[in-house]
Amino acid sequence: MLPTRLRKNAAVRSLIRETTLSMEDVVYPLFVVDGEGIRREIPSMKGQYHLSLDMLKTEVVQLRELGIRYVILFGVPDEKDAEATPAFVEDGIVQKAVRTIKAVDPEMYVICDVCLCEFKSDGHCCFFHDNGDIKRDKSLKTLCKVAVSQAKAGADMVAPSDMMDGHIEALRDALDEAGFESIPIMGYSAKYASTFYGPFRDAANSAPAFGDRKSYQMDPANVEEAMKEVALDVEEGVDIVMVKPAMPYLDIIVKAKELSFLPMAAYQVSGEYAMIRNAVDAGLLDERAIYESLLCIKRAGAGIIITYFAKELKALIGAYQ
User: Fold this and answer.
1) Per the confidence metrics, is the pTM higher than 0.70?
2) In whole angstroms, what is the distance from residue 270 CA to residue 197 CA?
3) What start-end ranges are recorded for coiled-coil regions in this protein (predicted)?
4) pLDDT digits (tens, 9 = 90+) for 295-317
5) pLDDT tens digit sequence for 195-214
6) Before 245, cis peptide (omega within 30)?
């Protein structure tokens, strides 16, 4: 235990603090929709909004004023189809959103989620054979089309969240062949089949129309499986490793960080956000719970935190750090 004379003095506590937060640690998720004049609060995620492209312009300016320099985009199109076509067409909602953001703030770092569930009529991240087996080749080819289209639109990084076997290698090859060798890949390397995604599926209109995603996302009971998934992504050329969700899986973040020397990211997902947000708003928890939740994720080893609390962080750092 530290001597009392060190713990009782605020200046000294700050001097010896092992973990600190900064605005450079956080990535803010944005949900972009078709239409005009839309800034619609997501019912299950208080304080988060669906934004049309015109309202996205105003949002980007506000984010810059708050010191947020990194965003990750999720598209929610009006129309979907069985082939996930809206995910990779040139005038897709995500592609238009990237160009909109770059027009407002060329220095805003834009990460694009690479997946099919938000654009595919059945809400799944892949294609299936009639017997229920995954059509891996078709799924990977479509995901590659999505990533390349996002890079062409001006994305700074792509983040495949589909959990298909071999997706990192396939995306790396596709991006390189298209002339985007410098575009990094942040892999959802250990993505669990978690109940904490509920509010996000509401926000992204991506709940599966049948079955679930347990055939291609991880069992929450498994640790060694996560390490194998991380090792495979590293072998295939991933640039950043991610664990999702974050707080219920801090042990996985620690182990993954020990396994890989690559930068570590964690996604504080919608269910984590909703629980803390609602508890703070109801007076059941102090707002320091928001700060503490982010601090513990970084302490576990994640230098990159995707969080819906990014807007609150600047004030929290000023108050509690």
Assistant:
1) yes
2) 6
3) none
4) 999 999 999 999 999 999 999 99
5) 998 887 777 665 554 445 55
6) yes
Within a domain: residue 8? no
Read off the pLDDT of residues 26-82 as tens digits, 9 standing for 90 and up: 999 999 999 999 999 999 999 999 999 999 999 999 999 999 999 999 999 888 888
Q: Which two tokens stand for residue 106?
A: 């060329």
Would you please indicate which residues are annotated as catalytic (active-site) residues? 191, 244
Phi, psi of 237 (to 5 degrees): 105, 20
Selection from 48, 54, 55, 8 nearest residue 30 by Cα: 48
Domain of residue 313, CATH code:
3.20.20.70
The verdict on whether residue 125 carries a ligand-binding annotation is yes
> Which structural domain, as residue segments, surrounds residue 119?
21-320
* Kind of pairing between the strands at 39-42 and 45-51: antiparallel
Other C-beta atoms closer than 10 Å to the C-beta of 19 total 11
Is residue 203 in some structural domain? Answer: yes
Q: Which residue has the tokens 């805003």?
A: 108
Is 40 marked as binding a ligand? no
Q: What is the pLDDT of residue 209?
A: 46
d(C-alpha 256, C-alpha 248), whole Å: 14
Asked whether 188 and 111 are in contact (CB, 8 A), the reply is no
Residue 144, annotated as binding a ligand: no
Q: Is 112 annotated as a binding residue?
A: no
Q: Is residue 11 part of a domain?
A: no
Structural domains counted in the chain: 1
Nearest to 269 by CA among 206, 221, 199: 199
